[in-house]
Amino acid sequence: MSKQFQFKLVLLGESAVGKSSLVLRFVKDQFDDYRESTIGAAFLTQTVTLDDQTTVKFEIWDTAGQERYKSLAPMYYRNANCAVVLYDITSSATLEKARTWIRELQRQADPSIVIALCGNKSDLAARRQVTEEEAKKYADEEGLMWAETSAKTGEGVSEIFTAIAKKLPLTAPPSASRAGAARTAGRAGGVDLNKQATSQPGQDACNC
């Protein structure tokens, strides 16, 4: 019997590092050269298939990078199962900002949160300021996942989300009901969407 699990994922990082573009590429396989800055946060969903019997649905919160919205971030990473912290490989300053976000997650987010450090804009390697070695060394020291991606070309995008899905604990909470699913999803494990679906016949378990 196939199983679907649901996890809350939050994207963090400096403004203009490509968070929204990364999510758009992952969810719709699209890229827009010009995107307006996110205000507050945007919500999207996407499902990753791990094998014939297991799928993971990500509930994705794409947060705004501007400083004036920083105080809202805990609303989105609180109880998150996983986080993607982005930096722009052409800007050393954005890696420093990513380090700040990671420290904040380590202090305030769920201790079991899976964190991936992601260097975006790998298509602009000729303008690189952050070396792969520097970023990977930091990620290894902090126990983070690490990858480089290009939202523009799609390189590495699906791979990093799939890798996160594989690292999450695919265990359904006991007697997960639809009413308790939202409360449980942000804690220790995933929500088994099959159990949710059986509680309300006729409702699609995955509406992404």
UniProtKB/TrEMBL annotation:
<feature type="compositionally biased region" description="Low complexity">
    <location>
        <begin position="173"/>
        <end position="186"/>
    </location>
</feature>
<dbReference type="GO" id="GO:0015031">
    <property type="term" value="P:protein transport"/>
</dbReference>
<keyword id="KW-0342">GTP-binding</keyword>
<keyword id="KW-0472">Membrane</keyword>
<feature type="region of interest" description="Disordered">
    <location>
        <begin position="172"/>
        <end position="208"/>
    </location>
</feature>
<keyword id="KW-0653">Protein transport</keyword>
<dbReference type="GO" id="GO:0003924">
    <property type="term" value="F:GTPase activity"/>
</dbReference>
<dbReference type="InterPro" id="IPR027417">
    <property type="entry name" value="P-loop_NTPase"/>
</dbReference>
<dbReference type="GO" id="GO:0005768">
    <property type="term" value="C:endosome"/>
</dbReference>
<keyword id="KW-0636">Prenylation</keyword>
<keyword id="KW-0813">Transport</keyword>
<dbReference type="GO" id="GO:0005525">
    <property type="term" value="F:GTP binding"/>
</dbReference>
<protein>
    <submittedName>
        <fullName>GTP-binding protein</fullName>
    </submittedName>
</protein>
<keyword id="KW-1003">Cell membrane</keyword>
<keyword id="KW-0449">Lipoprotein</keyword>
<dbReference type="GO" id="GO:0016192">
    <property type="term" value="P:vesicle-mediated transport"/>
</dbReference>
<dbReference type="Pfam" id="PF00071">
    <property type="entry name" value="Ras"/>
</dbReference>
<dbReference type="InterPro" id="IPR005225">
    <property type="entry name" value="Small_GTP-bd"/>
</dbReference>
<dbReference type="InterPro" id="IPR001806">
    <property type="entry name" value="Small_GTPase"/>
</dbReference>
<dbReference type="GO" id="GO:0016050">
    <property type="term" value="P:vesicle organization"/>
</dbReference>
<dbReference type="GO" id="GO:0005886">
    <property type="term" value="C:plasma membrane"/>
</dbReference>
<keyword id="KW-0547">Nucleotide-binding</keyword>
